[in-house]
Amino acid sequence: MPVILTRTDLRALLNMEEVIKALGEAFLSYGQGKTVVPVRLPLEVKPYHGISLYMPAFQEGPDGLGVKVVSVFPDNPQRNLPTIFSYYLFCDPQTGALQALMDGSILTGIRTGAASGLASRYLARRDSKTLGLFGAGFQAGFQLEAMRIILPALERVFVADVNRSRVSEFIRNHSADRRIKFEPATDPNRVAKESDVIVTATTSSSPLFDGRLLRPGTHINAIGGFTPKMQEVDEETVRKAKVVVDTYEGCLNEAGELLIPMQKGTFSRDQIHSDLAGLVSGQKPGRKDPGEITLFKSVGTAIEDLAAARLAYQRATEKGIGLSFEM
Hints:
Blueprint: E1 3-5, H1 7-13, H2 16-31, E2 35-36, E3 41-45, E4 50-59, E5 64-72, E6 84-91, E7 98-103, H3 104-123, E8 130-134, H4 138-150, E9 156-160, H5 164-174, E10 181-184, H6 188-194, E11 197-200, E12 219-222, H7 235-240, E13 242-245, H8 248-254, H9 256-264, E14 272-275, H10 276-281, E15 294-297, H11 302-319, E16 323-324
Parallel strand pairs: 1-7, 8-9, 8-11, 9-10, 11-12, 12-15, 13-14, 13-15
Antiparallel strand pairs: 1-16, 2-4, 3-4, 4-5, 5-6, 6-7
């Protein structure tokens, strides 16, 4: 009998460190050709200014089958509703039978943070002390959670957001750890100049900082942009960085940070160093030099959703968590 796993259930079941490990195994399987992951299907709902995204995946070893549905309706706040609704259907890969209906928002949040954590394990300097966080919304907390695991020397976090009250709330909610000093940031270029690791988790369509100001050894996780017109980091950053993508197919279809300079002829596919599968498998090296500038560009992939959902269902089965229901 299938179960419902709520947001509260998923937060109790999913540990960031375990999800990072699960994503590493999933990308290794993907690199071995054991995964079927179509590019996500966008469905416009023009009369209501919305869009629904469908993200299916099937994987062998470990087996898994599922699909995430994400709906983005910008007018929803006027109806006192969230802008985004998301659900995940996790199925038995041998029969197709539904095993779990899960909240997709928490699943997306934690897997996106884990993807940045996985990339940073290979690309960020282990002695990185300062994190620059652009965006203080829903995703920011998961990114911070992952960086705390991957960066043992972390001691300072800049927080920048166009919404100042959101910055204050974020710092208030995450400053219990006295080992880390949180600072609200109003000058994005200062964040670029002084950070060892930068995370961009916004919906910006224009670059957030001047890439010429990045110091040697900086690592950037650009995870907010997911359309060809969104560009959180500028062409200068892309041009001088060692670029790693979550998947070639996804980023070459949706990542504005790469597609815009490619259209101008200032960047090419051949300049992408690797995807995550290449790093995890050891086929491509991560950071080779302390002075390298590295960039992880992610648009999100159903590989990550499936890995997190499979782990959640496994833990729920072990602990007897979830509300059973019949179709």
